[in-house]
């Protein structure tokens, strides 16, 4: 039986084992998928040990995505851009290939739910690793414009600079946010602390979508704020399931149906 896992620290909270078990059952793939807490000082050693025990691939979550990026022998183009890896694949020659599926997961979740990205005015909040990981797939949908806003303005400007060859993208502080926007994506970790970035009242265009990469049993403060201002709201649970589906596809060559798995997870939250 082929072995896969998710590496994190901590990792007990990870929903990936539930998701991949559901995918495996649905597609008839015989895989074993577990959660492994890698030591903070030796992620590479944990991956090597897993491979020695028959591991064929892995997902990587906080705080190892950059370390996973560094240990790969070859990388997908989107992982090179993201400078992070959430999917490790053991090649036939024993080499480690790295990919990042977070961005395609986000785009697929939006598109599957009828959110038009081509020609849209997009605002992304935050300029950390989570945001860097989604910019290339977002720009590939050919939005009219994409503005990255961050508490630390220079970080957003520098991040945007790395992607200017891919489309109309710029970055700055929250005070530089000038709406209206069709799609607003919160990629800050502010939701974790129950914080809301300072945003103008007229942020949303008519029919706009607000998306939070975080998810939970209750809507985040950002989504509550957005709902009060008339935006259509989605949380990051769909992105979580879609990034997993793309990893599963990379490993097994089969695309699971994500809708029932999303429902399964949603029920497990409440
Ligand atoms: P991640 O991997 O989740 O992206 P990160 O790289 O540490 O984590 O980035 C966290 C992001 O959330 C950053 O954009 C951070 O803003 P700064 O660059 O100014 O630090 C943002 N962030 C975290 N807490 C926040 C808060 N309370 N209000 C606004 N932005 C916040």
UniProtKB/TrEMBL annotation:
Catalysed reaction equations from the record: shikimate + NADP(+) = 3-dehydroshikimate + NADPH + H(+)
Active-site residues, as the UniProt record annotates them: 65
GO molecular function, one term: shikimate 3-dehydrogenase (NADP+) activity
Residues engaged in binding NADP(+): 126-130, 150-155, 213, 236
TM segment ranges: none
Binding site for shikimate: 14-16, 61, 86, 102, 215, 243
Protein name per its UniProtKB record: Shikimate dehydrogenase (NADP(+))
Gene: aroE
InterPro entries linked: Aminoacid_DH-like_N_sf (IPR046346), NAD(P)-bd_dom_sf (IPR036291), SDH_C (IPR041121), Shikimate_DH (IPR011342), Shikimate_DH-bd_N (IPR013708), Shikimate_DH_fam (IPR022893), Shikm_DH/Glu-tRNA_Rdtase (IPR006151)
Domain SDH C-terminal: 236-266
Annotated signal peptide: none
Complexes and interactors: Homodimer.
SUPFAM superfamilies named among the record's database cross-references: Aminoacid dehydrogenase-like, N-terminal domain (SSF53223), NAD(P)-binding Rossmann-fold domains (SSF51735)
Similarity comment: family membership: Belongs to the shikimate dehydrogenase family.
Gene Ontology biological-process annotations: amino acid biosynthetic process; aromatic amino acid family biosynthetic process; chorismate biosynthetic process; shikimate metabolic process
Family matches, as CDD domains: NAD_bind_Shikimate_DH
Provenance organism: Billgrantia gudaonensis
E.C. number(s) listed in UniProt: 1.1.1.25
Keyword Oxidoreductase: yes
Entry function: Involved in the biosynthesis of the chorismate, which leads to the biosynthesis of aromatic amino acids. Catalyzes the reversible NADPH linked reduction of 3-dehydroshikimate (DHSA) to yield shikimate (SA).
């Amino acid at each position: 039986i082929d072995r896969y896992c998710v590496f994190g620290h901590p990792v007990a909270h990870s929903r990936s084992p539930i998701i991949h078990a559901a995918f495996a059952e649905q597609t008839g793939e015989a895989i074993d998928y577990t959660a492994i807490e890698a030591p903070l000082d030796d992620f590479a050693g944990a991956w090597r040990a897993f491979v020695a025990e028959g591991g064929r691939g892995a997902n990587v979550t906080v705080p190892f995505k950059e370390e996973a990026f560094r240990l790969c022998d070859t990388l997908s183009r989107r992982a090179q851009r993201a400078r992070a890896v959430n999917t490790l694949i053991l090649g036939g020659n024993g080499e480690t290939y790295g990919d990042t599926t977070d961005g395609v997961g986000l785009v697929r979740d939006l598109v599957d739910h009828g959110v038009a990205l081509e020609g849209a005015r997009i605002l992304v909040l935050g300029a950390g690793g989570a945001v860097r990981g989604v910019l290339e797939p977002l720009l590939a949908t050919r939005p009219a414009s994409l503005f990255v806003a961050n508490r630390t303005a220079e970080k957003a400007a520098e991040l945007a600079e790395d992607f200017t060859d891919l489309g109309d993208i710029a970055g700055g502080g929250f005070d530089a946010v000038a709406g209206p926007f069709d799609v607003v994506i919160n990629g800050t970790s502010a939701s974790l602390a129950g914080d809301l970035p300072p945003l103008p009242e007229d942020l949303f265009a008519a029919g706009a979508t607000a998306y939070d990469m975080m998810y939970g049993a209750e809507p985040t403060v950002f989504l509550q704020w957005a709902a009060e201002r008339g935006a259509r709201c989605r949380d990051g649970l769909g992105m979580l399931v879609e990034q997993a589906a793309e990893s599963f596809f990379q490993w097994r060559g089969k695309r699971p149906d994500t809708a029932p798995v999303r429902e399964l997870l949603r029920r497990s939250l409440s």
